[in-house]
Amino acid sequence: MTPDIGLVKPKVEPPLDGDFRPAVLYNHAFLKAVSRFKKQEPLGIAVERNNGLTSVFKTVVFPESSRMAEASLPYVGHLVKTLLWIWGGWKVMVGGPGYIGRYVRNEYSPKGKRAFDAEFMGGVYEKPFMVEVMDSDNLPQPSEQRVSLGRHFEGCRIGFDAGASDRKVTAVIDGEVVFSEEVVWDPKTQTDPKYHLDEIMNALRTAASHMPRVEAIGVSAAGIYINNRVRVASLFRGVPRDLFERKVTNLFLDIKKEWGDIPLEVVHDGDVAALAGAMSLNDTKVLGIALGSSEAGGYIDREGYITGWLNELAFVPVDLSPYAPIDEWSGDLGCGSQYFSQEAVVRLALKAGIVLDEKQTSAEKLKHVQRLMSGGHGGARKIFETVGCYMGYGIAYYADFYDIRHVLIIGRVTSGEGGNIILRKAEEVLRVEFPDLAARINVHLPDESNRRVGQAIAAASLPALK
């Protein structure tokens, strides 16, 4: 037995990515190796977020005295990062062997490998990020909070979906969509927040012109929002920090005032995607995955509530290959943003022998690949088959942390025949590699209209009328 568990090659190999080594297969191989060992050490990871809410994950590792101890470190490293981005939090508590706790604390130190994650989370929750090491017996108990979300359709409402490549808006009267519009924009590179304000207000006014009045506004947006305040969002990445605090943090509160202080709710786009799925399926335990300019994730639990978790799946590692692409924001390898997004399509196009116009935006490049797909281009088909393989292994990984009955995949990447290919390939991966999951998880693709504007429609239902 060697201290190296080793990466696992998938049984269903992505046509354009022979280096792909799914995180889920590595984790399962590690836990299988630990189970065969004479002695295992219990390990608990607790993450505290806002208002003292705390989530806890229990697992096992090799004991520190074992010659296999070092094999626990990569597993724990990816696990803690995954939990942090799924749950969100400013404090990580490690209950178990001391060598594990010391390793995690070093990883999240100011000069550690996960310094970006630590700084990001500290900014979200407005507290200094910290790692606390303790005995497993002293780990806190879970403290969760479930929140009802949306499903309000009475009256005249606007739903706005702020994607990083396009913005979508709908006008809804008593549950009926009377207008919808999709406009390409480029918020990430803009340094003046007036651009964002003007674009959002223009969209809202356009939708309002199709209704006798506006009684509520719901917003689905990439990023993290607490009490309608912008904490961190890729939409505003180009805005300097000082200007962000003065003009962006309270942007939606200012918009609410502009519209006469009517009910307005801003919710993370992944949760709105999950809400859209739960409403269309009339069921619960739904994981929503939106494949747009990046990846958005959201979850509706067994009772039909959201959990208050971050669900920032774009930063969750799904590929452990040393050759995995680098996320442009965090600088980390193998994160979901490079596998479940238009960036994945653009990245794979070169491998598929497709020449793209570098003057075009990523959204325009995606549309070009989709046009090739509709024309029967073999390379384009392989791109979507590859993304489908990623999706199958990604769903299996997420199932280790979420109780899932349905997975809904939406977003601009799923438009056209490419979406059907992604769906079929993901289902193949589950059948071949994870038959137990295939038997209990249903993967869904909405109709073409809802793939693109479904989130905006669900967003309209977010606010309750006064």
| Average pLDDT for all residues | 93
**What is the 3D form?**
globular
The total tally of domains equals: 2
The strand count comes to 15
Strand order of the largest sheet: 7-6-5-8-11
Q: What portion of residues is helical? A: 25-40%
Q: DSSP strand (E) fraction? A: 15-25%
Low-confidence stretches: none
> What is the number of helical segments per DSSP (H or I, 4+ residues)?
14
What is the SS-derived class?
alpha/beta
**Named CATH architecture of the largest domain:** 2-Layer Sandwich
Note down, in words, how this protein is organized.
It is a single chain. The strands form four sheets. This protein has a five-stranded mixed sheet. The chain has 14 helices and 15 strands. Strand 1 and strand 2 (54-61) form a beta hairpin. Helix 9 crosses helix 11. 50% of the residues are buried. The chain has helices at 23-35, 72-87, 98-107, 115-125, 193-208, 241-248, 251-258, 269-281, 342-351, 362-374, 378-398, 417-433, 435-440, 448-460; strands spanning 41-48, 54-61, 91-95, 130-134, 156-162, 166-173, 176-184, 216-221, 224-226, 229-232, 264-268, 286-291, 295-300, 406-410, 442-444. The longest helix is centred in the C-terminal third of the chain and has 21 residues, at 378-398. It is α/β, with parallel strands linked by helices. The radius of gyration is 22 Å and the shape is globular. The protein folds into two domains: 38-138, 3-Layer(aba) Sandwich (Cytidine Deaminase, domain 2), CATH 3.40.140; 146-466, ATPase, nucleotide binding domain (Nucleotidyltransferase, domain 5, 2-Layer Sandwich), CATH 3.30.420.
